[in-house]
Specification:
- The complex is a heterodimer of chains A (192) and B (200).
- Helices cover 44% and strands 11% of the residues of chain A.
- Chain A has 192 residues and is of the alpha+beta class.
- Chain A has two domains: 143 residues, Ubiquitin Conjugating Enzyme; 39 residues.
- A four-stranded antiparallel sheet of chain A has the order 1-2-3-4.
- In chain A, a hairpin with a 6-residue loop joins strand 1 and strand 2.
- In chain A, helix 4 crosses helix 5, helix 6 crosses helix 7 and helix 7 packs across helix 8.
- Chain A is globular.
- Chain B has 200 residues and is an alpha+beta fold.
- Chain B folds into two domains: 89 residues, no CATH class; 56 residues, Herpes Virus-1 (2-Layer Sandwich).
- Helices cover 28% and strands 15% of the residues of chain B.
- In chain B, strands 2-1-3 form a three-stranded antiparallel sheet. A three-stranded antiparallel sheet of chain B has the order 4-5-6.
- In chain B, a hairpin with a 4-residue loop joins strand 1 and strand 2.
- Chain B is elongated, with a radius of gyration of 20 Å.
- Classes of the chains: A alpha+beta (192), B alpha+beta (200).
- At the A-B interface, helix 1 of A face helix 6 of B.
- Chain B: It is an enzyme of class 2 (transferase).
- Chain B: Keywords: Metal-binding, Transferase, Ubl conjugation pathway, Zinc, Zinc-finger.
- Chain B: Its EC number is 2.3.2.27.
Chain lengths: 192, 200
Protein backbone atom coordinates (compact mmCIF):
# COMPACT_ATOMS: atom_id res chain seq x y z
CA UNK A 1 0.00 0.00 0.00
CA UNK A 2 1.29 3.44 -0.89
CA UNK A 3 1.79 5.69 2.13
CA UNK A 4 -0.19 8.63 0.75
CA UNK A 5 0.14 10.67 3.91
CA UNK A 6 3.91 10.58 3.45
CA UNK A 7 3.59 11.61 -0.22
CA UNK A 8 1.35 14.47 0.87
CA UNK A 9 3.91 15.58 3.49
CA UNK A 10 6.68 15.41 0.93
CA UNK A 11 4.73 17.63 -1.43
CA UNK A 12 4.22 20.20 1.34
CA UNK A 13 7.94 20.13 2.21
CA UNK A 14 8.92 20.68 -1.41
CA UNK A 15 6.45 23.52 -1.69
CA UNK A 16 7.98 25.24 1.37
CA UNK A 17 11.48 25.61 -0.01
CA UNK A 18 10.87 25.54 -3.72
CA UNK A 19 12.37 29.02 -4.10
CA UNK A 20 15.60 28.06 -2.35
CA UNK A 21 16.02 24.64 -4.00
CA UNK A 22 14.42 25.39 -7.35
CA UNK A 23 12.95 21.90 -7.15
CA UNK A 24 9.21 21.45 -7.51
CA UNK A 25 6.92 18.46 -7.32
CA UNK A 26 3.29 18.71 -8.32
CA UNK A 27 0.61 16.05 -8.68
CA UNK A 28 -0.55 15.10 -12.17
CA UNK A 29 -3.65 13.31 -10.93
CA UNK A 30 -5.81 13.49 -7.82
CA UNK A 31 -4.65 10.18 -6.37
CA UNK A 32 -0.98 11.23 -6.01
CA UNK A 33 0.42 8.23 -7.88
CA UNK A 34 1.52 10.29 -10.86
CA UNK A 35 3.53 13.45 -10.25
CA UNK A 36 5.72 15.85 -12.16
CA UNK A 37 9.08 16.96 -10.80
CA UNK A 38 10.95 20.01 -12.06
CA UNK A 39 14.67 20.67 -11.62
CA UNK A 40 16.78 23.58 -12.84
CA UNK A 41 19.87 22.67 -14.86
CA UNK A 42 22.96 23.06 -12.65
CA UNK A 43 25.01 26.23 -13.11
CA UNK A 44 28.31 25.75 -14.92
CA UNK A 45 27.05 22.75 -16.92
CA UNK A 46 25.65 22.50 -20.46
CA UNK A 47 22.24 22.21 -18.78
CA UNK A 48 22.44 25.66 -17.17
CA UNK A 49 19.40 27.82 -17.81
CA UNK A 50 17.21 24.85 -18.68
CA UNK A 51 14.22 23.62 -16.71
CA UNK A 52 13.86 19.85 -16.80
CA UNK A 53 10.62 18.00 -16.18
CA UNK A 54 10.60 14.52 -14.73
CA UNK A 55 7.66 12.11 -14.78
CA UNK A 56 7.23 10.44 -11.40
CA UNK A 57 5.18 7.33 -10.70
CA UNK A 58 4.73 6.23 -7.10
CA UNK A 59 4.83 2.41 -6.94
CA UNK A 60 2.53 0.32 -4.76
CA UNK A 61 5.29 -0.39 -2.21
CA UNK A 62 6.41 3.23 -1.71
CA UNK A 63 8.42 4.23 0.34
CA UNK A 64 9.89 0.71 0.57
CA UNK A 65 10.30 0.72 -3.21
CA UNK A 66 11.89 3.61 -5.12
CA UNK A 67 9.72 6.05 -7.06
CA UNK A 68 9.88 5.54 -10.83
CA UNK A 69 11.35 8.61 -12.47
CA UNK A 70 12.15 9.52 -16.05
CA UNK A 71 12.80 12.72 -17.91
CA UNK A 72 9.93 14.02 -20.01
CA UNK A 73 12.14 16.89 -21.21
CA UNK A 74 14.62 15.67 -23.81
CA UNK A 75 18.17 15.76 -22.46
CA UNK A 76 21.61 14.86 -23.86
CA UNK A 77 23.48 13.10 -21.06
CA UNK A 78 25.41 9.76 -20.85
CA UNK A 79 23.23 8.40 -18.03
CA UNK A 80 19.86 9.47 -19.45
CA UNK A 81 18.30 7.92 -22.52
CA UNK A 82 18.07 10.52 -25.28
CA UNK A 83 15.11 8.51 -26.63
CA UNK A 84 13.00 7.65 -23.60
CA UNK A 85 14.34 9.82 -20.78
CA UNK A 86 15.11 6.71 -18.66
CA UNK A 87 17.61 7.49 -15.91
CA UNK A 88 20.50 5.27 -14.80
CA UNK A 89 20.96 6.21 -11.15
CA UNK A 90 21.68 3.86 -8.24
CA UNK A 91 19.42 5.59 -5.71
CA UNK A 92 16.46 4.99 -8.02
CA UNK A 93 17.37 1.29 -8.07
CA UNK A 94 19.30 -0.84 -5.58
CA UNK A 95 20.57 2.05 -3.46
CA UNK A 96 17.10 3.34 -2.64
CA UNK A 97 16.27 3.72 1.05
CA UNK A 98 12.89 4.60 2.59
CA UNK A 99 14.56 7.56 4.32
CA UNK A 100 15.10 9.12 0.89
CA UNK A 101 12.33 11.26 -0.56
CA UNK A 102 11.10 12.51 -3.92
CA UNK A 103 13.03 15.69 -3.28
CA UNK A 104 16.31 13.96 -2.39
CA UNK A 105 15.91 11.75 -5.46
CA UNK A 106 15.43 14.85 -7.62
CA UNK A 107 18.48 16.46 -5.98
CA UNK A 108 20.44 13.30 -6.89
CA UNK A 109 19.25 13.59 -10.48
CA UNK A 110 20.36 17.22 -10.50
CA UNK A 111 23.77 16.10 -9.19
CA UNK A 112 23.89 13.49 -11.95
CA UNK A 113 23.49 16.29 -14.50
CA UNK A 114 26.65 17.90 -13.01
CA UNK A 115 28.66 14.68 -12.83
CA UNK A 116 27.99 12.27 -15.69
CA UNK A 117 29.25 8.69 -15.34
CA UNK A 118 30.05 7.73 -18.96
CA UNK A 119 31.46 4.36 -17.84
CA UNK A 120 28.03 3.27 -16.60
CA UNK A 121 25.93 4.65 -19.45
CA UNK A 122 22.22 4.62 -20.12
CA UNK A 123 22.73 6.05 -23.60
CA UNK A 124 25.75 4.44 -25.28
CA UNK A 125 25.88 6.97 -28.14
CA UNK A 126 26.01 9.94 -25.77
CA UNK A 127 28.56 8.20 -23.52
CA UNK A 128 30.83 7.44 -26.45
CA UNK A 129 30.66 11.04 -27.60
CA UNK A 130 31.38 12.22 -24.03
CA UNK A 131 34.51 10.07 -23.85
CA UNK A 132 35.82 10.50 -27.40
CA UNK A 133 34.79 14.02 -28.26
CA UNK A 134 33.98 16.01 -25.13
CA UNK A 135 33.68 19.39 -26.88
CA UNK A 136 31.07 18.06 -29.32
CA UNK A 137 29.25 16.50 -26.36
CA UNK A 138 29.12 19.86 -24.56
CA UNK A 139 27.77 21.71 -27.56
CA UNK A 140 25.18 19.02 -28.31
CA UNK A 141 24.02 18.99 -24.68
CA UNK A 142 23.84 22.79 -24.70
CA UNK A 143 21.88 22.78 -27.94
CA UNK A 144 19.40 20.26 -26.52
CA UNK A 145 19.03 22.42 -23.40
CA UNK A 146 18.35 25.49 -25.55
CA UNK A 147 15.90 23.64 -27.74
CA UNK A 148 13.98 21.47 -25.30
CA UNK A 149 14.50 22.79 -21.77
CA UNK A 150 13.93 26.51 -22.16
CA UNK A 151 10.66 28.33 -22.13
CA UNK A 152 11.09 30.68 -25.00
CA UNK A 153 8.77 33.30 -26.37
CA UNK A 154 6.45 32.51 -29.27
CA UNK A 155 8.66 34.51 -31.63
CA UNK A 156 11.76 32.53 -30.65
CA UNK A 157 9.92 29.26 -31.25
CA UNK A 158 8.65 30.48 -34.61
CA UNK A 159 12.13 31.61 -35.59
CA UNK A 160 13.70 28.24 -34.73
CA UNK A 161 11.09 26.24 -36.63
CA UNK A 162 11.21 28.55 -39.64
CA UNK A 163 15.00 28.09 -39.67
CA UNK A 164 14.36 24.37 -40.01
CA UNK A 165 12.68 25.09 -43.33
CA UNK A 166 8.96 25.31 -42.53
CA UNK A 167 6.72 28.17 -43.68
CA UNK A 168 5.93 30.97 -41.19
CA UNK A 169 2.12 30.57 -41.28
CA UNK A 170 2.38 26.79 -41.11
CA UNK A 171 4.69 27.06 -38.07
CA UNK A 172 2.40 29.48 -36.24
CA UNK A 173 -0.66 27.29 -36.70
CA UNK A 174 1.29 24.17 -35.61
CA UNK A 175 2.48 25.92 -32.42
CA UNK A 176 -1.02 27.15 -31.69
CA UNK A 177 -2.61 23.74 -32.16
CA UNK A 178 0.07 22.19 -29.92
CA UNK A 179 -0.70 24.55 -27.06
CA UNK A 180 2.69 26.26 -27.36
CA UNK A 181 4.66 22.99 -27.15
CA UNK A 182 7.53 23.41 -29.58
CA UNK A 183 8.39 19.70 -29.74
CA UNK A 184 4.82 18.70 -30.45
CA UNK A 185 4.59 21.43 -33.10
CA UNK A 186 7.75 20.07 -34.73
CA UNK A 187 6.32 16.56 -34.73
CA UNK A 188 3.14 17.85 -36.36
CA UNK A 189 5.09 19.75 -38.98
CA UNK A 190 7.23 16.70 -39.77
CA UNK A 191 4.29 14.31 -40.00
CA UNK A 192 1.97 16.61 -41.89
CA UNK B 1 42.13 -33.54 11.38
CA UNK B 2 39.85 -35.27 8.95
CA UNK B 3 38.23 -33.60 6.02
CA UNK B 4 34.49 -33.74 5.54
CA UNK B 5 32.51 -34.26 2.41
CA UNK B 6 30.02 -31.73 1.24
CA UNK B 7 26.76 -33.08 -0.05
CA UNK B 8 25.17 -29.87 -1.30
CA UNK B 9 25.99 -26.42 -2.56
CA UNK B 10 23.99 -23.50 -1.19
CA UNK B 11 23.32 -21.01 -3.96
CA UNK B 12 22.40 -18.33 -1.47
CA UNK B 13 25.54 -18.39 0.71
CA UNK B 14 27.64 -19.67 -2.21
CA UNK B 15 29.40 -22.36 -0.23
CA UNK B 16 29.43 -26.10 0.17
CA UNK B 17 27.45 -27.66 2.99
CA UNK B 18 26.94 -31.10 4.39
CA UNK B 19 23.37 -32.18 4.79
CA UNK B 20 22.91 -35.29 6.82
CA UNK B 21 20.95 -36.48 9.80
CA UNK B 22 19.16 -33.52 11.36
CA UNK B 23 19.88 -31.23 8.40
CA UNK B 24 18.12 -33.56 5.98
CA UNK B 25 14.39 -33.77 6.20
CA UNK B 26 12.67 -36.90 4.93
CA UNK B 27 13.40 -38.40 1.55
CA UNK B 28 11.82 -36.36 -1.21
CA UNK B 29 11.60 -33.29 0.96
CA UNK B 30 13.82 -30.41 0.13
CA UNK B 31 16.65 -29.84 2.60
CA UNK B 32 17.51 -26.42 3.92
CA UNK B 33 20.92 -24.82 4.24
CA UNK B 34 22.30 -25.17 7.73
CA UNK B 35 23.69 -21.65 7.55
CA UNK B 36 21.02 -19.48 5.97
CA UNK B 37 18.01 -21.79 6.07
CA UNK B 38 17.36 -21.34 2.37
CA UNK B 39 16.26 -24.27 0.23
CA UNK B 40 18.03 -23.13 -2.94
CA UNK B 41 20.49 -26.04 -2.87
CA UNK B 42 22.25 -28.14 -5.42
CA UNK B 43 23.27 -31.70 -4.75
CA UNK B 44 26.95 -32.30 -5.36
CA UNK B 45 27.12 -35.58 -7.26
CA UNK B 46 30.77 -36.20 -6.79
CA UNK B 47 31.15 -35.32 -3.16
CA UNK B 48 33.79 -32.71 -2.81
CA UNK B 49 36.43 -33.00 -0.18
CA UNK B 50 36.36 -29.94 1.99
CA UNK B 51 39.81 -29.37 3.33
CA UNK B 52 40.01 -27.19 6.41
CA UNK B 53 42.77 -25.36 4.57
CA UNK B 54 40.65 -24.61 1.56
CA UNK B 55 39.79 -21.16 2.85
CA UNK B 56 38.22 -19.91 -0.32
CA UNK B 57 36.11 -22.88 -1.29
CA UNK B 58 38.23 -23.35 -4.42
CA UNK B 59 37.72 -27.11 -4.50
CA UNK B 60 33.97 -26.67 -4.62
CA UNK B 61 34.09 -24.02 -7.29
CA UNK B 62 36.40 -26.27 -9.31
CA UNK B 63 34.07 -29.23 -8.97
CA UNK B 64 31.14 -27.06 -9.99
CA UNK B 65 33.03 -25.96 -13.07
CA UNK B 66 34.03 -29.54 -13.93
CA UNK B 67 30.44 -30.61 -13.94
CA UNK B 68 29.79 -27.84 -16.42
CA UNK B 69 26.47 -28.14 -18.13
CA UNK B 70 25.49 -31.40 -16.53
CA UNK B 71 23.85 -29.60 -13.69
CA UNK B 72 20.80 -31.66 -13.02
CA UNK B 73 20.43 -30.38 -9.53
CA UNK B 74 17.85 -27.75 -10.27
CA UNK B 75 15.58 -30.29 -11.88
CA UNK B 76 16.39 -32.65 -9.07
CA UNK B 77 15.21 -30.10 -6.60
CA UNK B 78 12.05 -29.66 -8.66
CA UNK B 79 12.17 -25.91 -8.58
CA UNK B 80 9.48 -24.49 -10.77
CA UNK B 81 10.65 -22.17 -13.49
CA UNK B 82 8.93 -19.25 -11.79
CA UNK B 83 10.59 -20.02 -8.48
CA UNK B 84 13.96 -20.36 -10.12
CA UNK B 85 13.47 -17.10 -11.97
CA UNK B 86 12.43 -15.30 -8.79
CA UNK B 87 15.40 -16.59 -6.85
CA UNK B 88 17.93 -15.80 -9.53
CA UNK B 89 16.59 -12.30 -10.01
CA UNK B 90 16.59 -11.78 -6.24
CA UNK B 91 20.23 -12.86 -6.14
CA UNK B 92 21.03 -10.53 -8.96
CA UNK B 93 20.16 -7.51 -6.84
CA UNK B 94 23.24 -5.98 -5.41
CA UNK B 95 23.44 -4.74 -1.88
CA UNK B 96 22.70 -6.34 1.43
CA UNK B 97 20.41 -9.31 1.90
CA UNK B 98 17.37 -9.24 4.23
CA UNK B 99 18.07 -9.04 7.95
CA UNK B 100 17.56 -12.31 9.80
CA UNK B 101 14.27 -12.69 11.73
CA UNK B 102 16.29 -13.17 14.93
CA UNK B 103 18.18 -9.93 14.39
CA UNK B 104 14.91 -8.08 13.67
CA UNK B 105 13.20 -9.49 16.75
CA UNK B 106 16.11 -8.71 19.02
CA UNK B 107 16.34 -5.10 17.87
CA UNK B 108 16.08 -2.81 20.89
CA UNK B 109 12.63 -1.51 21.90
CA UNK B 110 12.64 1.91 23.48
CA UNK B 111 10.09 4.25 25.01
CA UNK B 112 10.17 7.65 23.35
CA UNK B 113 11.24 10.29 25.85
CA UNK B 114 11.58 14.05 25.55
CA UNK B 115 15.31 13.53 25.07
CA UNK B 116 14.67 11.50 21.93
CA UNK B 117 12.27 14.12 20.61
CA UNK B 118 14.83 16.86 21.10
CA UNK B 119 17.33 14.96 18.93
CA UNK B 120 15.10 13.99 16.04
CA UNK B 121 11.36 14.10 16.54
CA UNK B 122 10.41 12.48 13.22
CA UNK B 123 10.46 8.86 12.05
CA UNK B 124 12.66 8.93 8.93
CA UNK B 125 10.38 6.48 7.10
CA UNK B 126 6.82 7.75 7.60
CA UNK B 127 8.01 11.25 8.57
CA UNK B 128 5.42 11.38 11.37
CA UNK B 129 6.33 12.83 14.75
CA UNK B 130 7.10 10.30 17.49
CA UNK B 131 4.75 10.50 20.43
CA UNK B 132 6.20 10.76 23.92
CA UNK B 133 5.77 7.47 25.77
CA UNK B 134 5.18 5.43 22.63
CA UNK B 135 7.35 2.41 21.82
CA UNK B 136 9.86 2.59 18.97
CA UNK B 137 12.74 0.47 17.68
CA UNK B 138 16.37 1.49 17.92
CA UNK B 139 18.95 0.04 15.56
CA UNK B 140 22.52 -0.57 16.82
CA UNK B 141 23.56 2.56 14.89
CA UNK B 142 21.15 4.45 17.22
CA UNK B 143 18.64 5.43 14.54
CA UNK B 144 15.05 5.22 15.74
CA UNK B 145 11.97 4.15 13.80
CA UNK B 146 8.39 3.08 14.36
CA UNK B 147 8.30 -0.71 14.43
CA UNK B 148 5.81 -0.83 11.55
CA UNK B 149 8.11 1.43 9.52
CA UNK B 150 11.44 -0.35 9.99
CA UNK B 151 10.44 -4.03 10.04
CA UNK B 152 8.97 -4.16 6.48
CA UNK B 153 12.21 -2.62 5.23
CA UNK B 154 14.58 -4.94 7.12
CA UNK B 155 12.65 -7.95 5.88
CA UNK B 156 13.54 -6.72 2.41
CA UNK B 157 17.06 -5.45 3.09
CA UNK B 158 19.45 -5.45 6.04
CA UNK B 159 20.38 -1.79 5.98
CA UNK B 160 19.56 1.21 8.16
CA UNK B 161 17.51 3.58 5.98
CA UNK B 162 19.49 6.56 7.28
CA UNK B 163 23.12 5.37 7.48
CA UNK B 164 22.98 1.95 5.70
CA UNK B 165 24.61 0.14 8.67
CA UNK B 166 23.52 -3.49 8.88
CA UNK B 167 21.96 -5.33 11.79
CA UNK B 168 24.40 -7.89 13.22
CA UNK B 169 24.50 -11.26 11.52
CA UNK B 170 22.80 -14.10 13.30
CA UNK B 171 25.38 -15.32 15.85
CA UNK B 172 24.06 -18.87 15.75
CA UNK B 173 25.27 -19.12 12.18
CA UNK B 174 28.85 -19.10 13.39
CA UNK B 175 28.33 -21.75 16.07
CA UNK B 176 27.03 -24.26 13.61
CA UNK B 177 30.16 -23.98 11.56
CA UNK B 178 32.51 -26.80 12.56
CA UNK B 179 35.64 -24.96 11.45
CA UNK B 180 35.00 -21.67 13.12
CA UNK B 181 37.62 -22.29 15.78
CA UNK B 182 40.26 -22.48 13.03
CA UNK B 183 39.67 -18.88 12.07
CA UNK B 184 42.58 -16.93 13.50
CA UNK B 185 40.61 -13.70 13.92
CA UNK B 186 37.59 -13.02 16.03
CA UNK B 187 34.95 -11.80 13.62
CA UNK B 188 33.00 -8.88 14.91
CA UNK B 189 29.24 -9.06 14.87
CA UNK B 190 29.14 -6.50 12.13
CA UNK B 191 31.76 -8.21 9.96
CA UNK B 192 30.54 -8.64 6.46
CA UNK B 193 29.26 -12.00 5.38
CA UNK B 194 32.16 -12.37 2.99
CA UNK B 195 34.73 -12.50 5.76
CA UNK B 196 32.82 -15.18 7.55
CA UNK B 197 32.09 -17.33 4.55
CA UNK B 198 35.53 -17.10 3.00
CA UNK B 199 36.90 -20.14 4.77
CA UNK B 200 34.03 -22.56 4.38
Amino acid sequence: MIDFSRVQKELQDCEKDKDASGIRVSPKSDNLTRLTGTIPGPIGTPYEGGTFQIDITIPEGYPFEPPKMQFSTKVWHPNISSQSGAICLDVLKDQWSPALTLKTALVSIQALLSTPEPKDPQDAVVAEQYIKNYQVFVSTARYWTETFAKNSSLEEKVKRLVEMGFGDAQVRSAIESSGGDENLALEKLCSG
Amino acid sequence: MTSRKNTHWCNTCRRGIRLQGEGMRGRGERGACIHCGDTFLERLYENVELSPFDFFGLAIEEARNRRGNNRRSILENQLSFQELFNRLSAQDRRGPQPASPTAINSMQKIKISKKHLSLDPYCPVCQDRFETGSVARKMPCKHIYHSECIVPWLVQRNSCPVCRKELPQDRNIGRKNPFLYLWPFRSSASASNHNVSAFH
